[in-house]
Amino acid sequence: MSRHDFTGIEPDISVSIGWDRPLNSFFVQVLRRHPHLDGEDDTIVWHGTEPGELKSASDAIAIASRWARLPADLGRILETDRLKTLGAKDGPAQIAAKRRLFGD
Fold first, then answer.
1. 50-77 tens-digit pLDDT
2. Dist. CA 61–CA 82, nearest whole Å
3. Which helix (H) or strand (E) element contains residue 71?
4. Whole-angstrom Cα distance, residue 22 to residue 35?
5. What 3-state class would DSSP assign to 48?
6. What is the pTM of this model?
7. Strand partners, 6
């Protein structure tokens, strides 16, 4: 799994984007910090939680770019993250979790 964090366009927003190999999906998470609640954040956006939901880096970037200024080379970085995992296999914990979540 890869994860890249960015400060949002608004000062209380944070954006995370990356590749989740077990789900075979890119993901985007946008959080709003609450200064009055000790460490609590509200999730505004969270895509890429279902298998194959965001199939391309450009899909994830399109969502995240509404919330943060992203580097021009982020698509290349995310695709490199994905390619690095091509030979990886699920371990026992991932296999067990997928069975519980998705059945055999």
1. 999 999 999 999 999 999 999 999 999 9
2. 14
3. none
4. 34
5. coil
6. 0.85
7. 15
